[in-house]
Amino acid sequence: MGISLSGGSARGYAHVGVLQALHEHGIEPQIISGTSMGAVVGVLYAAGYSPEKIKNILTEETFSKMTNFSWRRTGLYKLEKMKVALQKYIAEDDFSNLKKPFYLALSNLNKACGETRSTGALFDYVIASCSVPGVFAPIVLEEGNYVDGGLLCNLPASAIREKCRYLIGSHVNFAGQKDSFPGPRSIMERAINLGITQNSKPEMALCDFLIDPPKMQNYTLLDFSKIEEIIKVGYEHTNKMIESGELPVKKLQTGPGNA
Questions:
Q1: In angstroms, rounded to a whole number, what is the distance separating the alpha carbons of residues 190 and 187?
Q2: How far apart, in whole angstroms, are the C-alpha atoms of residue 215 and residue 237?
Q3: Which end of the chain is more exposed for a tag (fewer CB within 10 A), N or C?
Q4: Distance from C-alpha of 152 to C-alpha of 154, rounded to nearest angstrom
Q5: 3-state DSSP helix/strand/coil percent for the chain, to nearest 5?
Q6: Angle at 52 between CA 46 and CA 55, to 5 degrees
Q7: pLDDT tens profile 110-153
Q8: Considering the entire predicted model, what is its pTM?
Q9: What is the DSSP letter of 133?
Q10: Which residues of the chain have pLDDT under 70?
């Protein structure tokens, strides 16, 4: 059984709550894919950390601690400090060191295409998958400029669809009706949200089950200080889906043939 974790910047904290609820019901995905913040949560989960420990790590390694101002023209901030954080929790800079198969999505600016990585050097590709264009400078890898995977594929379900019997998609960018827009920032946020949701629709269709909490529209991409609230939203929504039967526990519990 697999799980695909979408991007969503601060909203991506909800994935931790999703995983926690699944774990409490004996559902432990064995194959993971992720984009942006989904890649951060996903790589820690693939490294063997429990949802509770991931929550502790992300609370300790705050957004401000992992970023610093960039003097480059290509972005306001840089994520070089994120590598230091990753080195604290993952012993080797290689996908093969992870305990579960992990696939991350990123966008190649030069070739104008999305790419998926699951082998080789790990840390720089995780950082590239989080590098929101314009906010963070692109990461140069193998002579290419890479940015946030959410630009082209915000829910990389296709990366693992053929590798698992059941696939859960955890999407944290609910795009239901919104009645008011108090300022330019809210309009920009809405436009970004609609764009990444649109590119996720084909990937959502590949999932057997989709977790998409409506309350996520109450949070912005930059609400990093609300980590506890956001995790709780993911946790409570997933539990409701389990209680209602939308997520069938017996079918999804880890066991022979359920990878």
A1: 5
A2: 9
A3: C
A4: 6
A5: 45, 20, 35
A6: 85
A7: 999 999 999 999 999 999 998 887 677 788 888 789 998 888 99
A8: 0.90
A9: B
A10: 63-80, 134, 254-259
